[in-house]
């Protein structure tokens, strides 16, 4: 897996958290003596050749950024932009999934010959993280161009789902309650 690069997906609509009527960027929330973004970046740099951050505008944190030059919010936008720019297979991970393990990401890597897109599949129905081959780029672009932007529908159509059991590892910090539980547990 060390020969692959990883892309942290930040800056989409789901990267915002509402707390008492105010919007916060999840990537900048405090997490384990730093920010969630820096925590994820540092952790993933141990496992991957290179870690990129896909977002609408760069953060003050020094890193390799892939800036999405569109106001359109959808993970498929960041994925298509990263594949077009880097022209290599990539593992995509949302910034708000801090408990993902190397073992789960290895499952993506081990299953890479089975389809152009390999995702972790659970009963809860999440589709990120995933490993996307360069051959998936045309499908991503076609989906965006046609307005078919449901990540799950596209992944089921072109991808291979690796079954995983529900656990804290696959929890997203979607709400303030999720975030505070992650800090305390």
Automatic annotation (TrEMBL):
GO terms for molecular function: GTP binding; metal ion binding; nucleotidyltransferase activity. Pfam families: NTP_transf_3. GO terms for biological process: bis(molybdopterin guanine dinucleotide)molybdenum biosynthetic process. Keywords: Cytoplasm, GTP-binding, Magnesium, Metal-binding, Molybdenum cofactor biosynthesis, Nucleotide-binding, Transferase. InterPro entries: MobA-like_NTP_Trfase, Molybde_CF_guanTrfase, Nucleotide-diphossugar_trans. Residues 6-152 form the MobA-like NTP transferase domain. This is Molybdopterin-guanine dinucleotide biosynthesis protein MobA.
């Amino acid at each position: 897996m060390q020969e692959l690069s990883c892309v942290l997906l930040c800056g989409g609509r789901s990267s915002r958290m509402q707390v008492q009527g105010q919007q916060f960027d999840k990537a900048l929330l405090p997490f384990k003596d730093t920010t969630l973004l820096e925590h994820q970046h540092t952790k993933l740099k141990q496992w991957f050749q290179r870690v990129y951050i896909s977002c609408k505008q760069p953060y003050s944190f020094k890193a390799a950024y892939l800036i999405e030059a569109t106001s359109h919010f959808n993970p498929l936008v960041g994925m298509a932009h990263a594949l077009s720019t880097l022209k290599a297979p990539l593992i995509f991970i949302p910034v708000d999934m801090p408990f993902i393990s190397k073992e789960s990401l290895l499952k993506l890597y081990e299953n890479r010959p089975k389809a152009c897109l390999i995702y972790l599949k659970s009963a809860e129905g999440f589709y990120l993280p995933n490993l996307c081959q360069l051959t998936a780029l045309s499908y991503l672009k076609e989906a965006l161009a046609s307005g078919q932007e449901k990540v799950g529908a596209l992944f089921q159509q072109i991808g291979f789902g690796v079954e995983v059991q529900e656990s804290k590892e696959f929890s997203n910090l979607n709400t303030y309650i999720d975030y505070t539980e992650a800090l305390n547990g």
